[in-house]
TrEMBL record:
InterPro entries: Homeodomain-like_sf, HTH_AraC. Pfam families: HTH_18 (PF12833). The keyword Translocase does not apply. This is AraC family transcriptional regulator. It comes from Planctobacterium marinum. GO terms for molecular function: DNA-binding transcription factor activity; sequence-specific DNA binding. Keywords: DNA-binding, Repressor, Transcription, Transcription regulation. Residues 112-209 form the HTH araC/xylS-type domain.
Length: 212
């Protein structure tokens, strides 16, 4: 899935979940067939959950818990077996590590122009100095704005955008070599190294998880 909020974009591959805070406007786009299970957690139960929206790693154990809870009714007691099951899901969710599929959105019009240009031409690996000539700002100004508006340095933000584009293309069935070329990598091995360093798995393994 692709989840957009006013401030961030989240890619949610298989074996992942997205945590959204209350009252956050969001739009969900399914890039492939999706089976979705949603949990709504009362305010008083959220104290151990992340304080910001995030993509969470879903362990095999947690996946089984979620699968078994799909058929629970609304008529459960917090003290009965179903309530105990849901409390275990909540506890396990609160301990789930955050994944790297979050992309903070900038609002400055110059950074937005950079974002749009890279999305249209993902193979573009221009430096901040080169982007400065395009958007009319110094590289120092752009560097400061990226850190202020996204919390990330440009190189890290650029890599996260690359990961999001790569995941979307891989999910859509594009061959790894084609994705690597479209993203401007000189070789599949260079693309694989980047992808594995950011996601913990190779593109081939990631594609394999899509068909299970």
């Amino acid at each position: 899935m692709l989840v957009d909020t006013p401030f961030n974009r989240y890619i949610v591959p298989p074996e992942q979940g997205v945590w959204l805070l209350p009252h956050v406007d969001h739009e969900v786009q399914c890039l492939t067939d999706v089976s979705l299970v949603s949990f709504y957690i009362a305010t008083e139960m959220r104290h151990d959950m992340p304080k910001e929206c995030a993509v969470l790693e879903i362990s095999p154990f947690l996946k089984v818990l979620i699968y078994e809870a799909r058929d629970f009714t609304d008529h459960y007691s917090w003290e009965d077996s179903q309530g105990l099951h849901l409390r275990l899901i909540l506890q396990t969710l609160s301990e789930a590590p955050a994944a790297v599929y979050q992309l903070p959105f900038p609002s400055d019009k110059r950074l937005v122009k950079v974002l749009n240009c890279i999305q249209q031409t993902p193979s573009n690996h221009d430096s901040l100095e080169q982007w400065g000539d395009v958007v009319g700002a110094s590289s120092r100004t752009l560097s400061r704005l990226f850190k202020k508006e996204t919390g990330l340095h440009y190189t890290e933000w650029r890599q996260r955008l690359t990961i999001q584009i790569a995941i979307r293309k891989l999910i859509q069935g594009n061959p790894i070599a084609v994705v690597a070329d479209e993203l401007g990598y000189a070789s599949v091995s260079a693309f694989t190294y980047m992808f594995r360093s950011k996601t913990g798995m190779t593109p081939r393994l990631f594609k394999g998880k899509q068909v299970r």
